[in-house]
């Protein structure tokens, strides 16, 4: 009991998921294909050829999942809407059956006393839009604004919290430069254009959400706490380049209305690119009610040679940086080092850099662990409990130091489709048996439920 961190009254506790990772029902009720259907069905792209065709079958089992949330005691549930369910071609006609599903889900949540927090885009771009250039082209940002209007017109009477994009870093750079996410491209300027158009899509969507009277509007970024492998000039240079790639390309336009001016050699296209138009940065920097942050692990970086000799062949992530292993700490099954203090430091650094930062919601935090079902049929995931406990303590330390954090969403409610890793990595606080689709709450679920209950009891007593 005493190892529970404490948070201010009114703090939001939640759990998060994303459409393609849990829904399944990939061809049902008029859903169109997304870039992740295409990617996952391409041989060699995902572990064991895993796809989201069935996933957790949440599309059919959502009542059971809402009941799990209710028993957990969360204030809020963060899920994403699949664009290709709502607009199968990414433009034009609306698919009413797709909207119906989110209607049922939102109503079930409200019935259970849980506030829905909707992410409008968690990586499942309609394939039809990718066929016309995807995020490389400006039209996709404009189509996203149309789609946003459709969803907010439909759900805005019942949904208060809106997140435009989840981790545009991943969409732009994993998708169009590293190639380990859909659509699997490895490009230079194409990936930088994608980054800009994602930012623009965010800004245009904020405008639509405001026009519809949305209560709370934000975006979710995966920001990193990055350290140099040494204090050599070369490694400090690598640190500066990595900080632009991971953090500043996103925070500078959104929070300060500008692109980072340094490291011009690497990022000049963001400043001068033909894909930019006057007024874009103004759109992108529209004020937000909150900033969502996903945090998992710190990065250690060192100077490195370019991956490709020919400058014309270089991708946008070929920035002479290599990741160095973080020694002397535990690593999760993602291979990620567990260093909870870096969570506090990230939040303090961010607040120091942007004094006018909007309130923060931690929209994801959690760990993939080597879960085993014990002889008693239960999952005693002590490593995950330790990870959550230590990161919540680190978060409470940031709050105590004055960082304005309003909420925390654990990733994830359920074991699910972990992108290129397929079903091989388990992040859930509820186990999913992928043969029977049976759900079994893990020890971490019980621990999180107890933490929430203790918070309620303590803050009620304070009143
Ligand atoms: C978040 O991404 C996502 O929002 C969430 O969907 C995801 O499940 C969760 O974290 C856990 O990863 O497939 O080889 O490119 C955080 C960034 C994206 C980093 C997926 C790891 C997998 C490596 N993660 N990536 S690969």
Automatic annotation (TrEMBL):
A single GO cellular-component term on record: cytosol
GO BP annotations listed: cellulose catabolic process
EC number: 3.2.1.21
Record organism: Allostreptomyces psammosilenae
MF GO annotations: beta-glucosidase activity
Protein name per its UniProtKB record: Beta-glucosidase
Catalytic reaction list: Hydrolysis of terminal, non-reducing beta-D-glucosyl residues with release of beta-D-glucose
Keyword S-adenosyl-L-methionine: no
SUPFAM superfamilies: (Trans)glycosidases
Pfam families cross-referenced by the UniProt entry: Glyco_hydro_1
Lineage of producing organism: Bacteria, Bacillati, Actinomycetota, Actinomycetes, Kitasatosporales
Domain of life: Bacteria
Top-level enzyme category: hydrolase
